[in-house]
Structure formats: C-alpha cells, structure tokens
Amino acid sequence: MVVNVISKIGKGLNVTALTSQSFIERLIQEDYKFFTGVPCSLLSGLIYELEDQKGEARYVPSVREDAAVGLCVGAYLAGSMPVLLMQNSGLGYCLNAFTSLNLIYKIPALVIMSWRGKAGKDAPEHIIMGDIDQALLKTAGMEYSILSEENCDEVLKKAKQKICDEKLPYTLIIEKGLFDERH
Amino acid sequence: MKGTEAFQELIPLINDEPVVHANGFICRESFALKDREANFYMIGSMGLASSIGLGVALCKPDKKVIIIDGDGNVLMAMGTLAMIAAEAPKNLIHVVIDNEVYESTGSQRSISSKVRLDEVAKSTGYKNILRVEKKEKIKAAFLKLKDSEGPNFLLIKVEPGFDPATGRVTHTPEEITDRFMRSIG
After folding, report:
1. Could you tell me if the ipTM is greater than 0.90?
2. At A171, is the secondary structure helix, strand, or coil?
3. From CA A175, how far away is CA A117, in angstroms rounded?
C-alpha cells in the first residue's frame, strides 16, 4: 500500500497530506453533505471516515449503485449536495440512471469511483470494466478526472464548476493506493 | 377498482406534500388528474422512484414525503424497501398502485400476483402497512398512514385499465426539476 506522507496542497502555505480523513473533511467544507454508495476496498478508508462524522454530513449505505443514484437525486432535489461512492463495477448498473435521470433532468452529483482492473492487473471479474469504464463515461458525455494528490485542488474546482454551473455529474476516478484501505 | 379510480380517490387527499411518481401510467394518471409543482415525474429510470423519495425524505425531515410507485417498479428495486426500512424516515409514505401487470408496455404480467408486496414491506421493517382492495377504503387508509410515524406502506390492489389516451407529461425534465425544487424550498 502506498501512503503519501506529505505534499503541498494549494499555494504552498498549507502543507497537508491527502488522506482519507483530509479528503472527506475537504468535501464537507465544500458543502458536500449527503454521501451514499456501495463499498469498494479502495474506498474503505473514505467510508470509515464518513461513518465517523459527527456533524451534518451523513453516509447512507445503499444496496445497489443505481439505488444510490436515486438517493443522490432525491437529496439534491431536497437541497443537499450529494456524493456517490462506488467501485467501477457499479457503473453498469448506473448508466440508465445517469442517462434517463441525471443527464436529462440536470441533476448533478459528485461520483467517486474506484478503478479496479487497471492495466489488466486484477482479479478476472474486474479486467473488462477496468478497461472500458472511462470510455463508457465519455460515451455517456460524463466528464471525469483521475484524482491524484497533485491535482486534487484543480480537480475539485473543476468538479464544483460542472456540478454548480452545468448541473452535471462529475466523476473522480480513484486508483489503488491513493487512499488507505481498512480491511 | 380500476387504476384510474384509485388515483381519483388518492390525489384529492394530497395537500402540499412533495410527491415522487414512478414512470409509466403512474406519472401520466397523476399529471392528467392534477398537475402540481411539488410533483416529481420520473419519466425514465424505472425502479428509482423509491430511492429518490427516500433521499428527499432524509434531507427534508420536517416535510411529509409521498412516493407513488407501481408493482413493476417495486419488484425491480426490492432492495430499496430494505433501505427505507433501515433508514426509517418517519416522514415517508410509500403508496404502491399494484395492477399485477406492466400496463404501459402492453399489460405483460408482473409477478405481484404471486408475491405479496405488503408482506415484503412488513418483513423489511416498515412501521405501518395497509392493503386496500376497494376504492371506498383508500381515504381512511391513506389518512391513517399520513398521521402515523413512518415509514408507512399503502398497497392499493387495482385491476388493469388505465386509459391509453391519457397524455404524457408535457413538462421537460429540466422544468420538472426546477418546479419541484422551487416548491420544496
């Protein structure tokens, strides 16, 4: 497991490592308050951080990724900015929800999607989706970025702009090792 | 009772509550009878009316939130019944119009003639569950569930028989979003 100990975020004054804790705190500061999803080991640190939140932010476990999309839509309609966490295997379940709900109703969400099956190195069930997930997002007209410690500020800014101005979902792709795994 | 008759009984009982509608004839009947800004018409994404309604209810705990669902939608997303029971929003009423067919696609049979959806809701842990088969019973059942802490489930068994001449929702999806968000505040 890769643990990033220290790096520079922002303009050089804040020296903060990108950790599960710092990332969740950052999202909450940016007014993302409603979190739901279906777990992935690559996102396990993030979900444990969410379960530990004592403030307004909440994590609701979903049973399927498309139900999580529905929950995010309801939260947005009721005035909360939603975040969906899932493995890329859940993207297939979500495509109809994205195309016949979010994209036509102009209902945004921040999607945090783990990248299993990268470069064909993973368990067999992840290989095909690991190869095609970004093409699927592109085909559906959904923008995304591969998150890193270096581009975190820039990517969150872009996500916010897509979500608030264009009312479109924006996906952050999470590679193995970016966040800690707790299992 | 026909599905249309169930709507004629049900819709006048709704005041200013936000209502999330399942796709198909559920949207169309409600829209034709009484269009309201607080109606969210889900025209696609079959199965998700229940999870959308749950999201609204969790984020607006001070408002009663109503889902008007169909048997095909509930069967497609049965896991969402478990999510509703687990989160247990007191302000949620889940109404299911059950005609035992997929009527808007030509009345192919669904399996709700063999699976009791009220029993499914009960076993997941909804608080109050009522099943009605006569239109005269809808008012009392709905008002009772509206006055009781939820999540509550009302199963209305109907015969097929929506009028195919009933029009489609004429608002654009974006308009549906804007109106609903404005009304919910």
Report:
1. yes
2. strand
3. 10
Instruction: Write out chain B residues lying below 8 Å of A64, CB-based.
Output: 77, 79
Note the helical H segments in chain A. Answer: 20-29, 44-51, 65-77, 91-97, 103-105, 124-139, 152-165
CATH (domain of B33): 3.40.50.970
Distance from CA of A85 to the nearest CA of B (A): 15
Domain A20-174 has CATH 3.40.50.970: yes
B131 strand-pairing partners = B155
> Number of folded domains in chain B?
1
Which residues in chain B are contacts of A79 at CB distance < 8 A? 59-60, 181, 184-185
Note down the domain range covering B128. Answer: 3-184
Rounded to whole angstroms, the Cα distance separating B98 from A76 reads 29
Give the global pTM. 0.95
B80-95: burial string, b at 16+ Cβ within 10 Å, e else: bbbbbbebebebbbbb
Interface test with B, best of A36, A63, A98 (most B CBs within 10 A): A63
Q: How far apart are CA B21 and CA A123, in angstroms?
A: 40
Per-residue confidence in pLDDT tens, chain A, 183 aa: 444 444 444 444 455 789 999 999 999 999 999 999 999 999 999 999 999 999 889 999 999 999 999 999 999 999 999 999 999 999 999 999 999 999 999 999 999 999 999 999 999 999 999 999 999 999 999 999 999 999 999 999 999 999 999 999 999 999 999 999 998
Structure letter (DSSP) for residue A165: H
Q: Where are the alpha helices (DSSP H) in chain B?
A: 3-10, 25-33, 49-59, 71-76, 78-87, 117-124, 138-146, 173-184
Cβ-Cβ contacts under 8 Å for A90 (sequence gap 6 or more): A38, A64, A65, A68, A113
Among the partner-chain residues B48, B87, B173, the one whose CB lies closest to the CB of A66 is B48
Chain A touched by B143 (CB under 8 Å): no
A interface with B, Cβ–Cβ below 8 Å: 34, 58, 60-64, 66-80, 82, 96-97, 99-101, 104-107
**Count of A–B CB contacts within 8 Å?**
114
Q: For chain A, give every domain's residue range.
A: 20-174
